[in-house]
Amino acid sequence: MSDMIVPSFDDESSSGRKLAIICSKGNLDMAYPGLILANAALGEGIETHLFFTFWGFDIINKETMGHLKFTFVGNTSMHMPGSSMGIHHMLGALPGATAASTKMMKKMISDLDVPDVPEFLDLLHGSGAHMWACRMSADMMKLEEKDLYEGVEAIISATDFIELTDGAQLLFI
Amino acid sequence: MPTMNLLGRDIDVDAEGFLTNPQQWDADLAKALAANIGIDLTDAHWTAINFLRKDFETQHETATLRRVSTVGGIPVKELFALFPTKPAKKMAYVAGLQKPKGCV
Questions:
Q1: What is the pLDDT of residues A46-85, one digit of tens each?
Q2: Which domain holds residue A144?
Q3: What is the C-alpha to C-alpha distance for residues A18 and A70, in angstroms, rounded to an integer?
Q4: I want to staple A168 with a disulfide (CB 3.0 to 4.6 A). Which of A20, A142, A149, B13 is the partner?
Q5: Which of A1, A3, A5, A121 to probe the B interface (max B CBs under 10 A)?
Q6: What is the pTM of this model?
């Protein structure tokens, strides 16, 4: 018999830890890394901020968030996940190629029981994520808060975001 | 593998303290485990714990937070309120199961 072993859930080293993730890409395969890492951080009790900027705006734009795409064009990893068979990226430029590869990747994601982008945002929102939209991107794309996912707290400037994430670890995706 | 004594019983646990044998778990033990991490179990906690146990019987792995929410029907926000800061791990611990392995 040994002493009581209790997990240290509120380990002091993790309290006060803060993570900031800048999501700057709107491709389906570039949206997921940020969402998955944010979810993992929230599950560990880490204060998590996401800043959506430039094409990353497509992740929180109500019009586009459910329709992100995956393309072979300009992708140096020219194969589907789980297959080593190379595909010349010029083939990705053929009509229908992006739709087909997007459909395939969405199926792979859902087969892993990972939610689609809108539901993923709900999961993050429910877990207490702080989501922010970039002021300059909103102005460029002529979008307002009403056009964005409800969980987005505000449209803020880059300076605001830097102030908010004082002391945070930062990821640029 | 370490063994620890709780409620006069020998319990097999891993290095962190999570039960490694789900058969050694019962409701009394759940209360003791919850007390270890400062949680006083209410009916709402039990709804989550019972789902985790039932789900484990068929899935043979610990449900992730998302699964407790989508399949078990308990909103994620409520899970964070019931088991603060690290709900997935805390629920698994009290339910006598291993930490969830899934990413999401």
A1: 999 999 999 999 999 999 999 999 888 877 767 777 777 7
A2: 18-66+117-173
A3: 30
A4: A20
A5: A5
A6: 0.87
